[in-house]
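Data card: per-record layout.
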Amino acid sequence: MIKIITDSTIYVKKAEVQELEIRIVPVTYTVNGYPYCESYADNNGNFKEFFKYNRKLTTSGPNPSAFLSAFEEELALGNEVLCMTISSRLSGTYSAAYMAAKQTESKDVFVVDSHLTAGGLYLLVCEAKKCIDQGETMAEIIQKLLKIRDKITVAFSVDDMTPLRNSGRIGFVRMSVGTFLNIKPILLCKDGAVVSESSAHGNNGIVKKLVEKIPSYVSELTVNYIANNRLACHIYTAIREKYPDIKMRMSQMGPVLAVHLGLDVVGISFLDEKI
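The structure for this 275-residue chain is written out next.
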């Protein structure tokens, strides 16, 4: 049997973890020097309170030992392990998983850099699950995933560019890109890095730009948000009105991405099979 292991930036609820038959390794974050482990999307508590009162917030990838423990437990059960992580250009999580895989000295542990996170990582994991259910081999699955990850679009906007710039987890985004005068950036997670695509005027502009990115033939889509549930619902409704047959889910992201993107981030992720 092939077991999928991923990290907490996939942002799935506990029930979804059971449905997908996956394991989650938590990414850690610190608040004024105190460490916390990110959990399921519906089990992160009221983490938004941490963002008040100018508290110092940082993140760090899991210790390799966290992955090593998960890998060894699955190997002991006779399983092959397929580990898929947040993009290596956004986090050190991939490196931690890769180091742990080498420590097992097993040929049955494989680590894939998703080049994605959040809704994009979720879609890639779902594709891997479909392949496993169809009885494909590990080699066949990995070959497919490396092609599929480049067909997944992750587009999003933030209310304030400061957290993203301060994080250093940013690719080609002009310094002039900002959020002044109600002009909001439209950003992409492309080839594993955050890059600028365009801009929008206010929340209505964000909705319009994001909806315009979705091809009519897309079958599944995730709307991600953190604190701006109102704007996320606006995006969801606009997509549903234009494309009533798309399978959609809304997913609240957690504290790790909140540190780097701010609480008011909203975005969409979808797989474009025709790319």
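Known properties of this structure: The mean pLDDT is 93. The domain at 151-271 is CATH 3.30.1180.10 (Hypothetical Protein Tm841; Chain: A;domain 3).

See the next section for split statistics.
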